[in-house]
Amino acid sequence: MLTILLDNIVNTKPEMHDQEKNNTEQLILEAAEQEFFAKGFGGARTAVIAEKAGVTHAMLHYYFRKKEYLFERIVAKNISLLAQTITAAMGNSDLPIVERLKSGIAAHFDLIAANPQLPRFFLNEVLSRPEHYHIMYERIKEVSGKLATLQKDVDEASGRGEIEQVDIRMLLISLLSLNVFPFIAYAFIEPVSNELLGGMMADREKYLAMRKAENIEMIMRRIKKQ
Length: 226
Prior knowledge:
Radius of gyration: 22 Å
Number of strands: 0
Strand content: under 5%
Shape: globular
CATH topology of the largest domain: Tetracycline Repressor, domain 2
Helix content: over 70%
CATH architecture of the largest domain: Orthogonal Bundle
Distance between the termini: 77 Å
Largest sheet: none
């Protein structure tokens, strides 16, 4: 019996170690994301990240030797999340193409609504740092094949007369433009909304719901057969 107990302890140690390592790494990444989103790359401090994650500064450097490595992981994660959210919704072949495109627009908007700091983070921290462009390029490559498949489905639907012909790349640019701007603009439009928009933005959730519906309608008008 003692031998069996010892064997069980020995056999579970590597798994427990790996799980503990993964949990610690995840805590550090979550804390780093909060710090980068709030203060940007330049203002973020690894000591603060370590404190938020509940680890020592030395342990943080054991997992991520440089602040740049943490930043790259956060950028890569969020670019992949954005791309996968859109392609997953649009790639559901069980739905008609119009519904797939509508789902993609809605899923992207909802993701940003749940993470409203993302647009500012990308504009201020990623696009202003050309040395990090390679992270975006690598993640975009991951979904390029899915976009090609989606374009094929769109072409076939257009050939059947179901929708207008559209370049999926241009459609995605329209999607990004329409969905991202409300969150970037909110901070400076909201204070003057009473004058410009009759107080429409006083209820943030209602405003975002209206904006989401409007964005979907605008793109649907572009692709639906008249």
